[in-house]
Amino acid sequence: MIKMTGNRQFSLDLLIVAALVVLTDIFVLVPPLSGSFLRTVLGLLLVLFLPGYALTAALLPAKKDLEGIERALLSLGLSIAITPLMGFGMNYTSWGIREIPVLAGLSAFTLLSCGAAYYRRSRLPETEAFNITGETFTSTLKTEILEEIGYGTSKAFAALLIISILASLGSLAYVIGNPRGEEPFTEFYILGPDRVAENYPTEYTQGNSGTVIVGVKNHEHRNVDYTMEVRLENHSLPLPEDQKYISLGHNESLEEPVTFTPSVEGNNMKLEFLLFNETEKSIPYRNTHLWINVTKET
Length: 298
Description:
This protein is an alpha+beta fold and about 300 residues long. It contains 9 helices and 11 strands. The chain has 2 domains: about 5-150, no CATH class; about 185-295, Sandwich (Immunoglobulin-like).
């Protein structure tokens, strides 16, 4: 056991949590290690268990607050809540939801929670503070799992809990061993004259041409022949052949100006850009639109 200031024992569980956080950071950030299976295992621990366990330890520092199994279940639930909340918060920062910022955020949160947990435990009498040591781990596990599930509904609940845990582990192992491939899809979008998704031209004159930037990106894992159509209030507008028919290979993209001529006048009219794939010619595969005003030429 490790002695700390004031002759208090630093809880083995907090030390293990902190070590696992640091180890996860190493396996994610160091290139030779980042491709190993252990990186995935450690990453899942950091996402699904460690933050919740550290927070539980900080909030409930005494033995009487919660038993071991309940702590583990609460840790899992809190981690499942903490991780998406942190990702949601990151989305509103300049870092965005990216691997390294989320890793840094979860690591810092977990380590700070471990520090808070140790501080709160240190202020309790040693006999009252929740603590797991190497000497007591086996006996604690036996007490929590074997002795307390001896009779009636407790035994049934424990059996159900064990089955659920085993099923979750089996599902997790299957997902890791059989990763799902990327779903095929196509990006289809329009941009303004500055090639950004804003400042779209919305004022036109009947009979005069207008231009927008149309983008198509093929992520279908195959070559695809697309057909594009532009409609104003459900009236098809003629397009040049080279703009109407688009052929792209997998991961190829096209971002080109598309010219059209409004045929009718009116306010707040729907200008639709429709993209059809090679297998379905009557129902648009992708679509987007603008609301425009067209005035009569004077």
